[in-house]
Request: fold
Amino acid sequence: MFRKHRKMMAYMLALLVFTTYVMLDTFVITRVYGDASEASANHAGPGNHARPDSSADTSGQTVSSSNSYSDGNISITLNEYRENDTTIYVADVQVSSPEYLRTALAYGSYGRNVTAKTSEIAESVGAVLAVNGDYYGAQEQGYVIKNGELYRDTAVAGHEDLVIYEDGSFGIINESEVSAQELLDQGAVQTLSFGPALLSNGSITVGENEEVGRAMASNPRTAIGIIDENHYVFVVSDGRTSESAGLSLYELAEFMDSLGAETAYNLDGGGSSTMYFNGSVVNNPTTGGKSTKERSVSDIVYIG
Amino acid sequence: MYISDKDQDIRKAFTYLVISIVLAIAGAVYEHFSFGVWSNFMVYAFMIPLAGGTLPYMLRYLVSGAKPRKISAAGWVWHSGIATLTVGSVVHGILAISGRPNHLTIVYLIAGTALLASAAVMYVISNKGLSEGCAGPSAR
Reply:
Protein backbone atom coordinates (compact mmCIF):
# COMPACT_ATOMS: atom_id res chain seq x y z
CA MET A 1 0.00 0.00 0.00
CA PHE A 2 2.84 2.33 0.85
CA ARG A 3 4.60 1.69 -2.47
CA LYS A 4 1.38 2.41 -4.31
CA HIS A 5 0.82 5.70 -2.57
CA ARG A 6 4.39 6.77 -1.89
CA LYS A 7 4.26 9.71 -4.25
CA MET A 8 1.19 11.08 -2.59
CA MET A 9 2.56 10.43 0.87
CA ALA A 10 5.77 12.23 -0.05
CA TYR A 11 3.73 15.19 -1.27
CA MET A 12 1.62 15.22 1.90
CA LEU A 13 4.78 15.25 3.98
CA ALA A 14 6.04 18.23 2.00
CA LEU A 15 2.68 19.93 2.53
CA LEU A 16 2.95 19.34 6.26
CA VAL A 17 6.48 20.73 6.39
CA PHE A 18 5.48 23.83 4.44
CA THR A 19 2.42 24.41 6.63
CA THR A 20 4.53 24.11 9.75
CA TYR A 21 6.93 26.67 8.33
CA VAL A 22 4.09 29.08 7.52
CA MET A 23 2.76 28.86 11.08
CA LEU A 24 6.22 29.32 12.58
CA ASP A 25 6.88 32.24 10.27
CA THR A 26 3.63 33.87 11.33
CA PHE A 27 3.71 33.34 15.08
CA VAL A 28 7.20 32.39 16.21
CA ILE A 29 10.17 33.27 14.06
CA THR A 30 11.57 36.63 15.07
CA ARG A 31 12.82 38.89 12.31
CA VAL A 32 14.43 42.19 13.23
CA TYR A 33 14.57 44.59 10.32
CA GLY A 34 16.07 47.54 12.14
CA ASP A 35 16.52 49.37 15.39
CA ALA A 36 15.01 52.69 16.30
CA SER A 37 17.49 55.40 15.34
CA GLU A 38 19.14 57.48 17.98
CA ALA A 39 17.00 60.46 17.08
CA SER A 40 13.75 58.57 17.38
CA ALA A 41 14.91 55.94 19.83
CA ASN A 42 12.89 54.87 22.78
CA HIS A 43 14.23 57.37 25.22
CA ALA A 44 13.96 57.40 28.95
CA GLY A 45 11.38 59.95 29.84
CA PRO A 46 12.10 62.93 32.04
CA GLY A 47 14.12 61.56 34.92
CA ASN A 48 12.00 63.07 37.64
CA HIS A 49 9.09 60.67 37.33
CA ALA A 50 8.74 59.93 40.99
CA ARG A 51 5.76 57.64 41.34
CA PRO A 52 5.03 57.01 44.96
CA ASP A 53 1.54 55.76 45.77
CA SER A 54 0.64 59.08 47.24
CA SER A 55 2.72 62.19 47.54
CA ALA A 56 2.18 65.86 47.69
CA ASP A 57 4.88 68.26 46.69
CA THR A 58 4.07 71.87 47.38
CA SER A 59 7.07 73.10 45.40
CA GLY A 60 5.23 72.48 42.08
CA GLN A 61 7.30 69.46 41.14
CA THR A 62 5.92 65.99 40.50
CA VAL A 63 2.68 65.14 42.27
CA SER A 64 1.53 61.59 41.89
CA SER A 65 -1.16 59.33 43.28
CA SER A 66 -2.85 56.12 42.25
CA ASN A 67 -5.16 57.98 39.88
CA SER A 68 -3.33 61.16 39.00
CA TYR A 69 0.02 62.52 37.96
CA SER A 70 1.24 66.04 37.51
CA ASP A 71 4.55 67.70 36.85
CA GLY A 72 5.46 70.87 35.06
CA ASN A 73 4.70 69.42 31.64
CA ILE A 74 2.32 66.50 32.04
CA SER A 75 -1.01 66.25 33.82
CA ILE A 76 -2.90 62.96 33.86
CA THR A 77 -6.11 62.02 35.61
CA LEU A 78 -7.29 58.43 35.62
CA ASN A 79 -10.98 57.66 35.97
CA GLU A 80 -13.00 54.49 35.87
CA TYR A 81 -16.38 54.26 34.19
CA ARG A 82 -19.01 51.61 34.00
CA GLU A 83 -20.94 51.43 30.71
CA ASN A 84 -22.54 48.58 28.73
CA ASP A 85 -21.69 46.11 31.55
CA THR A 86 -18.06 46.99 31.04
CA THR A 87 -15.38 48.70 33.12
CA ILE A 88 -13.65 51.40 31.12
CA TYR A 89 -10.44 53.15 32.14
CA VAL A 90 -9.94 56.67 30.92
CA ALA A 91 -6.72 58.61 31.22
CA ASP A 92 -7.27 62.32 30.58
CA VAL A 93 -3.94 63.77 29.49
CA GLN A 94 -2.82 67.35 29.13
CA VAL A 95 0.72 68.14 28.08
CA SER A 96 2.64 71.35 27.61
CA SER A 97 4.10 70.07 24.35
CA PRO A 98 3.21 67.27 21.94
CA GLU A 99 6.75 65.91 22.33
CA TYR A 100 5.50 64.04 25.40
CA LEU A 101 3.12 61.97 23.25
CA ARG A 102 5.29 59.22 21.81
CA THR A 103 5.40 55.63 20.68
CA ALA A 104 7.88 52.90 21.50
CA LEU A 105 8.83 49.60 19.90
CA ALA A 106 9.40 46.38 21.81
CA TYR A 107 13.12 46.16 22.53
CA GLY A 108 13.57 49.33 20.51
CA SER A 109 13.55 47.18 17.39
CA TYR A 110 11.37 47.06 14.31
CA GLY A 111 10.50 43.62 13.03
CA ARG A 112 8.12 40.68 12.95
CA ASN A 113 7.39 38.76 16.15
CA VAL A 114 9.43 41.30 18.11
CA THR A 115 7.13 41.70 21.10
CA ALA A 116 7.10 42.53 24.79
CA LYS A 117 4.44 43.32 27.36
CA THR A 118 3.07 46.85 27.34
CA SER A 119 4.20 47.32 30.94
CA GLU A 120 7.75 46.19 30.11
CA ILE A 121 8.05 48.51 27.13
CA ALA A 122 6.55 51.34 29.16
CA GLU A 123 8.96 50.78 32.01
CA SER A 124 11.93 50.66 29.65
CA VAL A 125 11.15 54.13 28.33
CA GLY A 126 10.11 55.68 31.62
CA ALA A 127 6.48 56.14 30.58
CA VAL A 128 4.05 57.65 33.03
CA LEU A 129 1.08 56.39 31.02
CA ALA A 130 1.00 53.84 28.22
CA VAL A 131 -1.45 51.79 26.21
CA ASN A 132 -0.78 49.10 23.65
CA GLY A 133 -0.41 50.40 20.10
CA ASP A 134 -1.41 49.14 16.69
CA TYR A 135 0.56 45.87 16.81
CA TYR A 136 2.19 46.73 13.50
CA GLY A 137 4.25 43.51 13.75
CA ALA A 138 1.22 41.33 13.09
CA GLN A 139 0.78 42.87 9.66
CA GLU A 140 2.94 42.69 6.58
CA GLN A 141 1.65 45.94 5.13
CA GLY A 142 0.50 49.30 6.36
CA TYR A 143 2.40 52.47 7.18
CA VAL A 144 4.71 52.42 10.15
CA ILE A 145 6.03 55.79 11.28
CA LYS A 146 7.24 55.93 14.84
CA ASN A 147 8.66 59.09 16.44
CA GLY A 148 9.31 60.64 13.06
CA GLU A 149 11.06 57.63 11.55
CA LEU A 150 9.64 55.71 8.60
CA TYR A 151 9.88 51.94 8.97
CA ARG A 152 7.35 50.67 6.42
CA ASP A 153 5.73 52.43 3.50
CA THR A 154 3.68 49.67 1.85
CA ALA A 155 0.08 50.79 1.69
CA VAL A 156 -3.01 48.75 2.36
CA ALA A 157 -5.65 49.85 -0.11
CA GLY A 158 -8.43 51.77 1.59
CA HIS A 159 -6.99 51.42 5.07
CA GLU A 160 -7.61 54.23 7.57
CA ASP A 161 -4.69 55.35 9.71
CA LEU A 162 -4.40 57.76 12.58
CA VAL A 163 -1.66 60.28 11.99
CA ILE A 164 -0.18 62.32 14.81
CA TYR A 165 1.56 65.43 13.57
CA GLU A 166 4.47 67.24 15.14
CA ASP A 167 2.16 69.97 16.42
CA GLY A 168 0.22 67.30 18.33
CA SER A 169 -2.84 67.34 16.10
CA PHE A 170 -4.56 64.19 14.91
CA GLY A 171 -5.64 63.32 11.41
CA ILE A 172 -7.37 60.36 9.79
CA ILE A 173 -5.93 59.42 6.42
CA ASN A 174 -6.54 56.76 3.81
CA GLU A 175 -3.42 54.88 2.75
CA SER A 176 -4.70 54.80 -0.82
CA GLU A 177 -4.70 58.59 -0.99
CA VAL A 178 -1.36 59.59 0.47
CA SER A 179 2.04 57.97 0.65
CA ALA A 180 4.03 57.50 3.84
CA GLN A 181 6.72 59.87 2.58
CA GLU A 182 4.10 62.52 1.88
CA LEU A 183 2.89 62.14 5.44
CA LEU A 184 6.41 62.68 6.71
CA ASP A 185 6.71 65.74 4.52
CA GLN A 186 3.46 67.03 6.03
CA GLY A 187 4.94 66.76 9.50
CA ALA A 188 3.65 63.36 10.61
CA VAL A 189 5.58 61.87 13.52
CA GLN A 190 3.38 58.85 14.23
CA THR A 191 1.07 56.63 12.22
CA LEU A 192 -1.14 54.05 13.82
CA SER A 193 -2.46 51.48 11.38
CA PHE A 194 -5.12 49.37 13.04
CA GLY A 195 -8.45 51.13 12.99
CA PRO A 196 -11.06 51.91 12.16
CA ALA A 197 -11.41 55.58 12.92
CA LEU A 198 -14.08 56.10 15.57
CA LEU A 199 -14.57 59.86 15.43
CA SER A 200 -13.51 62.47 12.94
CA ASN A 201 -14.21 66.18 13.39
CA GLY A 202 -16.56 65.33 16.23
CA SER A 203 -18.70 62.87 14.27
CA ILE A 204 -18.92 59.12 14.72
CA THR A 205 -17.45 57.48 11.63
CA VAL A 206 -17.99 53.83 12.47
CA GLY A 207 -21.20 52.01 11.65
CA GLU A 208 -23.26 50.15 14.21
CA ASN A 209 -22.51 46.86 12.53
CA GLU A 210 -18.90 47.54 11.74
CA GLU A 211 -16.19 45.50 13.30
CA VAL A 212 -12.52 44.72 12.98
CA GLY A 213 -11.60 41.51 11.23
CA ARG A 214 -15.22 40.43 10.90
CA ALA A 215 -15.68 40.38 14.67
CA MET A 216 -19.22 41.18 15.61
CA ALA A 217 -18.74 40.67 19.33
CA SER A 218 -18.01 42.87 22.29
CA ASN A 219 -14.37 42.82 23.20
CA PRO A 220 -11.72 44.53 25.28
CA ARG A 221 -10.79 47.71 23.45
CA THR A 222 -8.05 50.31 23.30
CA ALA A 223 -8.55 53.74 21.80
CA ILE A 224 -6.91 57.12 21.71
CA GLY A 225 -8.53 60.46 21.08
CA ILE A 226 -7.82 64.18 21.00
CA ILE A 227 -10.11 66.66 22.74
CA ASP A 228 -8.28 69.86 21.88
CA GLU A 229 -4.75 71.15 21.56
CA ASN A 230 -2.38 69.03 23.64
CA HIS A 231 -5.37 67.46 25.39
CA TYR A 232 -5.80 63.72 24.82
CA VAL A 233 -7.70 60.73 26.15
CA PHE A 234 -6.37 57.20 26.36
CA VAL A 235 -9.14 54.66 26.80
CA VAL A 236 -9.00 50.95 27.58
CA SER A 237 -11.98 48.73 28.32
CA ASP A 238 -12.05 45.30 29.89
CA GLY A 239 -14.01 42.49 28.26
CA ARG A 240 -14.56 38.75 27.75
CA THR A 241 -15.21 38.24 31.44
CA SER A 242 -18.26 37.89 33.63
CA GLU A 243 -17.43 41.28 35.18
CA SER A 244 -16.99 43.10 31.88
CA ALA A 245 -18.66 42.09 28.63
CA GLY A 246 -16.59 44.39 26.46
CA LEU A 247 -17.58 46.99 23.89
CA SER A 248 -18.51 46.92 20.27
CA LEU A 249 -16.75 49.45 18.04
CA TYR A 250 -19.85 51.61 17.89
CA GLU A 251 -20.22 51.59 21.69
CA LEU A 252 -16.56 52.58 21.92
CA ALA A 253 -17.11 55.41 19.46
CA GLU A 254 -20.13 56.64 21.42
CA PHE A 255 -18.09 56.58 24.61
CA MET A 256 -15.23 58.53 23.05
CA ASP A 257 -17.79 61.03 21.81
CA SER A 258 -19.19 61.38 25.32
CA LEU A 259 -15.70 62.28 26.56
CA GLY A 260 -15.61 65.17 24.13
CA ALA A 261 -13.09 63.73 21.70
CA GLU A 262 -12.96 65.37 18.28
CA THR A 263 -10.91 62.64 16.63
CA ALA A 264 -10.61 59.12 17.99
CA TYR A 265 -9.08 55.92 16.69
CA ASN A 266 -9.40 52.26 17.57
CA LEU A 267 -6.17 50.47 18.41
CA ASP A 268 -5.48 46.76 18.82
CA GLY A 269 -7.98 45.22 21.22
CA GLY A 270 -8.81 41.82 22.61
CA GLY A 271 -6.01 40.32 24.65
CA SER A 272 -3.70 43.20 23.73
CA SER A 273 -5.72 45.89 25.51
CA THR A 274 -3.54 47.16 28.35
CA MET A 275 -3.25 50.44 30.22
CA TYR A 276 -0.15 51.16 32.27
CA PHE A 277 -0.11 54.08 34.67
CA ASN A 278 2.32 55.13 37.36
CA GLY A 279 4.20 51.85 37.32
CA SER A 280 1.37 49.34 37.19
CA VAL A 281 -1.22 47.86 34.87
CA VAL A 282 -4.60 49.32 35.79
CA ASN A 283 -7.00 47.20 33.71
CA ASN A 284 -7.54 43.45 33.52
CA PRO A 285 -5.96 42.25 30.27
CA THR A 286 -7.16 38.85 29.20
CA THR A 287 -7.20 36.78 26.04
CA GLY A 288 -9.64 34.04 26.91
CA GLY A 289 -11.43 35.60 29.84
CA LYS A 290 -10.26 32.94 32.23
CA SER A 291 -7.11 34.60 33.54
CA THR A 292 -5.67 38.07 33.74
CA LYS A 293 -2.47 38.14 31.78
CA GLU A 294 -0.74 40.73 29.66
CA ARG A 295 -0.18 39.87 26.03
CA SER A 296 3.14 40.74 24.42
CA VAL A 297 2.72 43.41 21.77
CA SER A 298 4.97 45.04 19.22
CA ASP A 299 4.52 48.68 20.24
CA ILE A 300 2.93 51.12 22.63
CA VAL A 301 1.67 54.70 22.70
CA TYR A 302 2.79 56.55 25.77
CA ILE A 303 3.16 59.78 27.65
CA GLY A 304 6.59 60.39 28.99
CA MET B 1 -4.06 -2.39 -16.85
CA TYR B 2 -7.78 -1.81 -17.14
CA ILE B 3 -10.04 -2.28 -14.17
CA SER B 4 -13.49 -1.28 -13.07
CA ASP B 5 -13.34 1.57 -10.55
CA LYS B 6 -17.00 1.57 -9.75
CA ASP B 7 -16.53 0.58 -6.11
CA GLN B 8 -13.43 2.75 -5.83
CA ASP B 9 -15.44 5.81 -6.86
CA ILE B 10 -18.01 5.21 -4.15
CA ARG B 11 -15.30 4.73 -1.55
CA LYS B 12 -13.51 7.88 -2.56
CA ALA B 13 -16.72 9.90 -2.62
CA PHE B 14 -17.54 8.69 0.85
CA THR B 15 -14.03 9.45 2.14
CA TYR B 16 -14.24 12.99 0.81
CA LEU B 17 -17.68 13.36 2.37
CA VAL B 18 -16.35 12.34 5.77
CA ILE B 19 -13.47 14.81 5.39
CA SER B 20 -15.94 17.56 4.49
CA ILE B 21 -18.09 16.85 7.53
CA VAL B 22 -15.08 16.80 9.85
CA LEU B 23 -13.88 20.12 8.41
CA ALA B 24 -17.29 21.71 8.79
CA ILE B 25 -17.51 20.68 12.43
CA ALA B 26 -13.91 21.64 13.19
CA GLY B 27 -14.41 25.04 11.57
CA ALA B 28 -17.54 25.69 13.57
CA VAL B 29 -15.85 24.73 16.82
CA TYR B 30 -12.79 26.89 16.05
CA GLU B 31 -14.93 29.90 15.36
CA HIS B 32 -17.02 29.31 18.46
CA PHE B 33 -13.90 29.90 20.52
CA SER B 34 -12.69 32.86 18.48
CA PHE B 35 -14.57 35.59 20.35
CA GLY B 36 -16.88 36.36 17.49
CA VAL B 37 -14.17 36.62 14.86
CA TRP B 38 -14.71 34.52 11.78
CA SER B 39 -13.24 33.96 8.35
CA ASN B 40 -14.98 32.72 5.22
CA PHE B 41 -11.91 30.62 4.49
CA MET B 42 -12.50 28.71 7.71
CA VAL B 43 -16.27 28.55 7.40
CA TYR B 44 -16.29 27.28 3.82
CA ALA B 45 -13.13 25.13 3.79
CA PHE B 46 -15.34 22.04 3.85
CA MET B 47 -16.70 22.98 0.41
CA ILE B 48 -13.37 22.18 -1.26
CA PRO B 49 -13.30 18.43 -0.61
CA LEU B 50 -17.07 18.33 -1.02
CA ALA B 51 -17.09 19.98 -4.44
CA GLY B 52 -13.69 18.69 -5.51
CA GLY B 53 -13.99 15.16 -4.20
CA THR B 54 -17.41 13.89 -3.26
CA LEU B 55 -19.22 15.49 -6.16
CA PRO B 56 -16.98 14.45 -9.09
CA TYR B 57 -16.55 10.89 -7.86
CA MET B 58 -20.29 10.53 -7.37
CA LEU B 59 -20.92 11.99 -10.80
CA ARG B 60 -18.41 9.65 -12.40
CA TYR B 61 -20.00 6.71 -10.65
CA LEU B 62 -23.47 7.69 -11.82
CA VAL B 63 -22.46 8.59 -15.37
CA SER B 64 -19.81 6.01 -16.17
CA GLY B 65 -21.07 3.11 -14.13
CA ALA B 66 -18.91 0.01 -14.65
CA LYS B 67 -17.10 1.40 -17.68
CA PRO B 68 -13.44 0.36 -17.55
CA ARG B 69 -11.04 3.10 -16.68
CA LYS B 70 -7.31 3.14 -16.83
CA ILE B 71 -5.41 3.60 -13.61
CA SER B 72 -3.35 6.74 -14.00
CA ALA B 73 -1.40 9.16 -11.90
CA ALA B 74 -4.22 11.68 -12.31
CA GLY B 75 -5.86 10.30 -9.17
CA TRP B 76 -3.15 11.08 -6.65
CA VAL B 77 -2.38 14.39 -8.34
CA TRP B 78 -6.02 15.39 -7.96
CA HIS B 79 -6.10 14.28 -4.31
CA SER B 80 -2.95 16.30 -3.66
CA GLY B 81 -4.49 19.36 -5.27
CA ILE B 82 -7.64 19.12 -3.18
CA ALA B 83 -5.58 18.58 -0.04
CA THR B 84 -3.42 21.60 -0.85
CA LEU B 85 -6.36 23.93 -1.41
CA THR B 86 -8.14 22.63 1.69
CA VAL B 87 -5.13 23.00 3.96
CA GLY B 88 -4.48 26.44 2.46
CA SER B 89 -8.03 27.53 3.15
CA VAL B 90 -7.84 26.39 6.76
CA VAL B 91 -4.44 28.02 7.31
CA HIS B 92 -5.62 31.25 5.70
CA GLY B 93 -8.67 31.18 7.94
CA ILE B 94 -6.60 30.67 11.08
CA LEU B 95 -4.32 33.55 10.17
CA ALA B 96 -7.24 35.80 9.28
CA ILE B 97 -8.97 35.09 12.59
CA SER B 98 -5.76 35.79 14.46
CA GLY B 99 -5.35 39.02 12.52
CA ARG B 100 -1.93 38.04 11.21
CA PRO B 101 -1.94 37.54 7.45
CA ASN B 102 1.02 35.89 5.73
CA HIS B 103 1.85 36.28 2.05
CA LEU B 104 3.05 32.66 1.94
CA THR B 105 -0.53 31.39 1.86
CA ILE B 106 -0.64 32.25 -1.84
CA VAL B 107 1.58 29.21 -2.40
CA TYR B 108 -1.32 26.93 -1.48
CA LEU B 109 -3.53 28.50 -4.10
CA ILE B 110 -0.90 28.34 -6.83
CA ALA B 111 0.22 24.79 -6.06
CA GLY B 112 -3.30 23.48 -5.55
CA THR B 113 -4.60 24.99 -8.75
CA ALA B 114 -1.61 23.71 -10.72
CA LEU B 115 -2.11 20.21 -9.36
CA LEU B 116 -5.81 20.17 -10.20
CA ALA B 117 -5.15 21.45 -13.71
CA SER B 118 -2.43 18.84 -14.22
CA ALA B 119 -4.70 16.09 -12.95
CA ALA B 120 -7.46 17.17 -15.30
CA VAL B 121 -5.13 17.11 -18.29
CA MET B 122 -3.69 13.75 -17.28
CA TYR B 123 -7.17 12.34 -16.86
CA VAL B 124 -8.32 13.51 -20.27
CA ILE B 125 -5.22 12.14 -21.98
CA SER B 126 -5.47 8.90 -20.08
CA ASN B 127 -9.08 8.30 -20.97
CA LYS B 128 -8.60 9.40 -24.56
CA GLY B 129 -5.95 6.72 -24.84
CA LEU B 130 -8.38 4.28 -23.29
CA SER B 131 -11.13 5.00 -25.75
CA GLU B 132 -8.73 4.70 -28.69
CA GLY B 133 -7.08 1.50 -27.52
CA CYS B 134 -10.08 -0.45 -26.28
CA ALA B 135 -12.23 -0.68 -29.36
CA GLY B 136 -12.13 -4.49 -29.07
CA PRO B 137 -11.10 -7.27 -31.41
CA SER B 138 -14.00 -6.64 -33.79
CA ALA B 139 -12.60 -3.29 -34.80
CA ARG B 140 -9.55 -4.85 -36.39
Chain A touches chain B at residues 5, 7-8, 11-12, 15, 18-19, 21-23, 25-27, 135, 138-140, 211-219, 240, 270 (CB under 8 Å). The two ends of chain A are 67 Å apart (CA to CA).
